[in-house]
């Protein structure tokens, strides 16, 4: 199901449109950015998610991370 996020700060990492009013999420990916009306036109049946002024970032994937090892070390450190 499509989701339309609005009423937030959206950091899309797209230099051509740095401050969109709304973001369309389609199949787990950014499907569009623009005004709320533009996103409603792209996904008329999309679920509306009011972000209540929160900041939304794109997903970050770290293919090689030792974060779990650091967390474990913090558990045993005295």
Q: Any chance you could write out the topology, listing elements then pairs?
A:
Elements: E1 3-6, E2 9-10, E3 22-26, E4 29-34, H1 36-42, E5 47-50, E6 55-56, H2 67-76
Parallel strand pairs: 1-5, 2-6
Antiparallel strand pairs: 1-3, 3-4
Task: Produce a short descriptive summary.
The chain has helices at 36-42, 67-76; strands at residues 3-6, 9-10, 22-26, 29-34, 47-50, 55-56.
How is this structure best described in words?
With 78 residues, the protein is α/β, with parallel strands linked by helices. Helices cover 22% and strands 29% of the residues. It has 2 helices and 6 strands, in the order E-E-E-E-H-E-E-H. The protein has helices at 36-42, 67-76, and strands spanning 3-6, 9-10, 22-26, 29-34, 47-50, 55-56. The chain has a 4-stranded mixed β-sheet with strand order 4-3-1-5, covered by helices on one side. A two-stranded parallel sheet has the order 2-6. Strand 3 and strand 4 form a beta hairpin. The radius of gyration is 17 Å and the shape is elongated. The protein starts with a strand and ends with a helix. The mean pLDDT is 88.
């Amino acid at each position: 199901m499509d989701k339309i996020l609005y009423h937030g700060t959206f950091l899309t990492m797209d230099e051509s449109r740095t401050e969109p009013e709304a973001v369309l999420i389609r199949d787990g990916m950014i499907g569009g950015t623009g005004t709320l009306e533009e996103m409603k036109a792209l996904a008329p049946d999309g679920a509306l998610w009011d972000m209540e002024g929160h900041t939304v970032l794109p997903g970050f994937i770290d293919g090689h991370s030792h974060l779990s090892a650091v967390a474990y070390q913090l558990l045993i450190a005295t």
